[in-house]
Design brief:
Rossmann fold, six-stranded mixed sheet, D-Maltodextrin-Binding Protein, domain 2, 566 residues, cell membrane, 4 domains, alpha/beta, elongated, seven-stranded mixed sheet
Length: 566
């Protein structure tokens, strides 16, 4: 029984123009092919059975005969669904009118009715954004199931089934397609029987239980420690190592595939969208030269618009490496044992004590009347561990002197102890640890420009601290040497992905004293990117999620980092 929500959605979609049924005589042909009753019966039992809890979208081939459409509509009567009729002329415009993410919902099953005149060009035009999770093709003509299921227009669909009438008895037959099988890619699931196909998984079996030894071509830049790096010094060797390579090895053993890596990209760009196209590793995947890329890429909406992203396997951002500030000069040790606030408090106490003692001396019964200067010298002498030339005779002055001597003794001992410590151990100013502290300082930042999004993002950021760093950013277009030299000079912070930054600075440039700010720029989820509408991405997602939950990714992170740092 359809829920009121589904019925309401269907009614609203009809009024909004989402439903588009072609009924003009110029587009509907006469009945030129047989239409088996068993197919209609299968359709009804399919909707009332395994598709009962799913929402349905129906497509009619524009060349489908009028009476065939009517018979199908009679079977669909009373079922909540959306009907669309597409032609090569209106396909792109029709898609632009709607939220394409709705088409990919796992709760929506797409059903296509075609005959011998079907043109897959329609779905080729929709392929980038139209990619259903569940798709059923009702073949009402005599086209081969092989030709239909192997059509490139349907290559991005995750689960697909074809239903047609058997030639010998007219019974409804079910087929699906296993693209990675070396032979017999078309699998016969059996004749339709409601008892055999009770669940959605019975109609749509997993098409990617194994990759059957397929060799994936991976776009990599093997200078991305600890994620993907070259274990050989030879420029011709692409035997990679690293966290992501270990993940590929584990997935390959589980799902039976091999892979090849690239040493670097042809244009030496990482992967960004410039001048209307993708470059670097992402460009190789976008142009379908490679199947996927596994290097350090964070999850962004801009990339997800043109690529399929796997589940995240790690969280990391861009680290800022800096040299620690130089130690405080020795001559500053004289006043550094106390903070500025303590020095201000001591001075204030000294002034008040002097004024108070002068008042006691003037109003008391002391035998010696001291001037204000004498009182100032007396109180000051105590702070330097010098005795008074004469002791007070008035009782009130004696009490005051006792408390003053105690204060001076505590202050002197505290100062002396701290002074010894500061003279023995070098004193360093507080290290910068946050982006805000860096923005408020006089430091600049530098970065090697290899095509990452960070420079542009900093300059256009709404965060004042990020925007300040963008204004102080000095990009280097040659090599890392120039950028790291600026950092080692103590004038700049060096921006690079956190893990790689740490290894690069400490191992390659031997800046052992350098440190990374505790706060990272643009921390985010790391993922792999595949071609848009990759049908088998769920198989990779399942495997990657298992590696993360099993703790293997963190284990490899520790092992690969220790491999370099010891």
């Amino acid at each position: 029984m359809a829920s009121p929500r589904i019925l309401f959605i269907c009614i609203m979609l009809t009024f909004l123009g989402f439903v588009h049924i072609k009924t003009s005589a110029g587009n509907i042909k006469s009945d030129t092919s047989s239409f088996d009753y068993d197919i209609l019966k299968t359709l009804k039992e399919l909707i009332d059975g395994p598709l009962e809890s799913s929402e349905i979208m129906v497509y009619f081939d524009e060349y489908l005969a009028n009476n065939q459409v009517n018979k199908v509509l009679l079977q669909l009567q009373g079922s909540p669904l959306v009907i669309a009729s597409l032609t090569p002329d209106n396909a792109e415009d029709w898609l632009d009118m709607h939220n394409t993410e709705n088409f990919k919902s796992t709760n929506l099953v797409h059903i296509l009715f075609i005959d011998d005149n079907f043109q897959s060009l329609i779905f080729e035009q929709l392929n980038q954004d139209w990619n259903p999770a569940y798709f059923i093709v009702f073949n009402l003509g005599n086209k081969s199931a092989n030709l239909l299921l192997e059509d490139p227009s349907f290559s991005g669909i995750k689960r697909i089934a074809l239903i047609q009438a058997a030639k010998y008895d007219g019974k409804a037959e079910l087929f699906t397609y296993f693209p990675f099988k070396p032979e017999n890619k078309i699998k016969y699931l059996g004749n339709w029987d409601p008892d055999d196909f009770q669940a959605l998984d019975d109609v749509f079996p997993d098409r990617f239980p194994s990759f059957e030894g397929f060799e994936f071509e991976i776009a990599t830049w093997l200078d991305d420690r600890p994620y993907a790096f070259n274990i050989s010094s030879s420029e011709m060797n692409t035997d990679g190592d690293g966290i992501c390579v270990e993940m590929l090895n584990a997935l390959g053993k589980t799902y039976n595939f091999t892979f090849t890596l690239t040493l670097h990209t042809p244009n030496c760009q990482w992967g960004s969208f410039e001048n209307g196209s993708w470059n670097g590793m992402l460009g190789m995947v976008y142009r379908k030269e490679k199947h996927l890329t596994i290097n350090y890429f964070s999850l962004t909406n801009e990339r997800r618009a043109d690529f399929d992203s796997t589940v995240p396997y790690h969280i990391e951002g861009f680290g800022i490496a800096m040299m620690p500030p130089p130690p405080i000069p020795k001559w500053r040790s004289a006043y550094y044992p106390f903070t500025y606030d303590v020095w201000a408090a001591i001075l204030t106490t000294l002034i008040l004590a002097t004024i108070f003692y002068v008042m006691l001396n003037k109003t008391g019964s002391s035998r010696f009347t001291a001037s204000s200067w004498d009182v100032w010298v007396f109180t000051l002498r105590s702070l330097f561990n010098n005795s008074w030339p004469r002791l007070p005779t008035d009782e009130a002055e004696k009490v005051f002197a006792g408390f003053w001597f105690l204060f001076c003794m505590i202050t002197t001992y505290a100062y002396t102890a701290n002074l010894v410590a500061f003279l023995t151990v070098p004193v360093f100013p507080k290290r910068i640890q946050t982006v805000e502290e860096l923005a408020l300082s006089d430091y600049r930042v530098t970065m090697f420009d290899y095509g990452e999004f960070v420079p542009e993002a900093l300059m256009s950021s709404h965060d004042p601290s990020y925007r300040t760093l963008g204004e102080r950013l000095d990009l280097v277009n040659t090599e890392y040497d120039e950028a790291v030299d600026l950092m080692k000079a103590g004038t700049h912070g060096f921006i690079e992905s956190a893990s790689y930054n740490r290894l690069l600075v400490k191992i390659d440039y031997e800046a052992e004293d350098s440190y990374l700010l505790k706060e990272e720029l643009y921390p985010g989820y790391l993922c792999w990117y595949m071609q848009k509408n990759t049908a088998y991405i769920d198989r990779f997602n399942t495997g990657i999620q298992g590696l993360v939950e099993g703790g293997l990714v963190l284990h490899w992170m520790k092992m690969k980092t220790e491999y370099f740092l010891g």
